[in-house]
Specification:
Layout lengths: L3 E6 L11 H4 L4 H13 L4 E6 L3 H13 L4 E5 L8 H10 L3 E5 L21 E4 L4 H13 L7
Helix pairs in contact: 2-5, 3-4
The structure holds ligand CA2.
Ligand CA2 binds next to loops.
Length: 151
């Protein structure tokens, strides 16, 4: 049976491709999720995608990943990055590798975006590659969980 990874996106990322393309690009969330599925398929991984504008629903998605026996999570916490101890606790609770992923280089932006709670507990962090960062995150996660490229 193939291993499953989750791709979880936080608040406002449902607007991808429709607003602020100069910052976040022109790809829609559906296209980003397809990029993740296609990239994961190269390693025989199955992807479950979740997005919510609500902190509790994001935490529920982490719990779902745990109950689903997922092997890891690609996570863009968006506006919760620097605010949510509850999400930090959820990452610790599920005990699986989380790859924090940001479309923009948060360190080149306003100071309030820099100090990520998620980074304290994420296994790795990717930012500034645009939506291609999601593909890089999936590839890195695949290596971490021992998923090999399919012939
Ligand atoms: O660069 C990223 O991926 C961010 O996580 C995006 C967040 C921002 O608060 C973080 O500092 C960095 C904002 C997400 C907003 O998403 C939108 C997408 C399209 C159009 C408008 C907003």
């Amino acid at each position: 049976m193939s291993k499953t990874i989750y791709v979880i996106n936080g608040p406002n990322l449902n607007l991808l491709g429709t607003r602020e393309p100069e910052k976040y690009g022109r790809a829609t969330l559906a296209e980003v999720e397809a990029l993740c599925r296609d990239t994961a398929a190269r390693f025989g991984l199955t992807v479950v995608c979740r997005q919510s504008n609500h902190e509790g629903a994001i935490i529920d998605a982490f719990h779902e990943a745990f109950h689903d026996k997922a092997v890891g999570i690609v996570f863009n916490p968006a506006g919760h990055t620097t605010t949510s101890v509850a999400i930090l606790d959820a990452i610790l609770a599920v005990g699986m590798p989380v790859i924090e992923t940001h479309i923009t280089n948060i360190h080149a932006r306003e100071a309030f975006r820099h100090d990520s709670y998620v980074s304290r507990v994420a296994r790795a962090v990717i930012c500034g590659f645009g939506v291609q960062g999601y593909a890089l995150a999936v590839i890195g996660l695949a290596a971490m969980v021992g998923a090999e490229a399919q012939k």
